[in-house]
Specification:
This protein is an alpha/beta fold. It has two domains: 2-209, P-loop containing nucleotide triphosphate hydrolases (Rossmann fold); 221-300, Winged helix-like DNA-binding domain superfamily/Winged helix DNA-binding domain (Arc Repressor Mutant, subunit A, Orthogonal Bundle), CATH 1.10.10.10. It has helices at residues 2-5, 11-26, 45-56, 100-106, 146-152, 170-200, 207-220, 222-230, 241-255, 262-277, and strands at 34-39, 61-63, 83-86, 110-115, 120-125, 129-134, 153-158, 231-240, 280-287, 290-300. The strands form three sheets. Strands 2-3-6-1-7 form a five-stranded parallel beta sheet, sandwiched between helices. It starts with a helix and ends with a strand. 32% of the residues are buried.
Amino acid sequence: MNELLAPALSDEAILVLRKYFGMCVLGYNYSQQFLLLEGTPGGGKGTLTTILRRIVGEMNVAEVRTSLLNERFEMAAFCGKTLLVGSDVPGNFLQRSGAEALKKLTGHDLIEAEFKGANRRAMLHGVFNAVITSNNRLRVRLDGDEEAWRRRLILVRFSNPPVIKKIVDFATQLLREEGSGILNWMLHGAVDALADFRESGKLIVPDSIQKDADDLLYESNSLNNFLDERVTAVPGGDVATSELQNAYISYCNTLNIPAMSLQAVASRLATLLRDKFDATYSNMLVRGSTTVRGYRNIELIVG
């Protein structure tokens, strides 16, 4: 497996991947973390996940859909499972309202599950391993809980170019030809994972891998960071919504990080500005001979 992964990942990333896959084979999330595989389409993420599912056993795997995690009966689908998988998820997967439940499902919380049409409930113990794959650069719905996400998230980025010639059902071929070696690779990872858990209570993640997760969380919090760094409370001051949006985009461009959509920015500004600066919304800010929408009692910091 190391030889297969070497063109796509660093040695440190392969070690982290092996440990997490080993923990998946054990069927218990000792470390209260989940794994995000992100990057190149066709770079091997899907093949890896298929191999993991088959080693763990499809009967022990459930698909996780953050858009439905707050729905009444969704948790019941996880009864009797040990591994949750989100395959090729969209870029807003961790921004949906149900994404918060991922922390419970992996963080040893007790969760009530209700069965549809059965008049029955069950208690789930949130010890699920979870692996999410995406071709997109994801952002997280932080809701002021950045440190909790930092404790939970392991991000491994695939930056290799996609293979020129794809092999049909490559996972099946690998398992047929190298199945015992792949299982041994994961079992060695399980031993290393348990050693990490005994030492620190979680999987030990090298700084180079942690930096990717930290960067993702910083990008996810870009609007909040922008307001902290580029806006200040000034009685009698005012800033138009369009001026805030333009300044935010410029801030993100300067840092070379993706900006949120203008619609997303506009939807969050009112609450953030009120909470941080006691700013009030107005549709009567004067700009030249016209009036525009914006916020009073704040100003942009120039520089």
